[in-house]
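REQUEST
  id: r-88c1
  op: predict_structure
  target: Methyltransferase
  payload:
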Amino acid sequence: MNDTLTIDAFLGGRVQLLQPRTGYRAGVDPVLLAASVAARAGQSVLDLGCGVGAAMLCLAARVPGLHITGVELQEDYAELARRNSSGAAEVIVADITALPREVLRRQFDHVIANPPYFDRAASREARDAGRETALGETAPLTDWVKVAAKRLKPKGYAHIIHRAERLPEILGAWPNGMGSVEVLPLAPRAGRLAELVIVRARKNGRGAFKLHPPLILHAGERHTTDAEDYIPAVKAILRDADPLEF
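RESPONSE
  id: r-88c1
  status: 200
  body:
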C-alpha cells in the first residue's frame, strides 16, 4: 500500500477498505444505508455511485451470498472498490445516466445509492477533485432516483440516503409504479433536526406512505469527550453489523 492510501476498518473490522488519504473518504452514511437493506442470500444488488465500495461491502458482510454490482464514475475509486471487494463484487466504471448495456439489460432485487449531497448552484466546490465528484452534484438528484427505480425488478426495493432538505426532490422524482415509500429521518441528537434521511421505495408497492420517528444517532445534548457517543442501537449497527430495521 502506498502512502496516498489508508486502510480503514468498518463493522468492527469485518470490512477493510483502502481509501484515499485525502479526498473523499467513506464515513458512517454508507454503513447506515447498507444496514437498512433487508436483502437475502441469492439476491442481486446494484450500488449506484459505489465509491470505494463501503455500502455494498458492508451489506455483503452482513448478508453473505449476494450478487453485487457497483457502478462508479471515478476510475481510481472504482479500482479501489475492486481491490476492496476481492472478487466479491462486480465493479463497472460508468456515469449513472449512461449505464453500459451490461447493466441496462439486467434488473436487480435491490438498488442502493448515496448520491452527491450538494447542489453546487447553492454551495461551494471542494478543492480535491475526487471529493468534489463524490459530493458535488452533476447529474440531478432526480436522475439518480429515476435510474434506481428503472433498474429494479418487480417488487424490488430502492434505498437512498441523502440530506434531509433534499427529501421533497426524492419524493417527487419516484416514477409511476414506485410505492410503499418509507422515510427514516436521522437526527444527530435528541431535540435536533434530522440532517439525513433514508428513503425506501418498492417497485409495484401498494403500501401507504410512512414517515418513521427519527433515529437518534448520539447520546446526550452535545459531544463532550473524544470518545464515541453513539447510542447502543447505532453502535451495534456500526460495529456489530446489526440491521437497521424500519
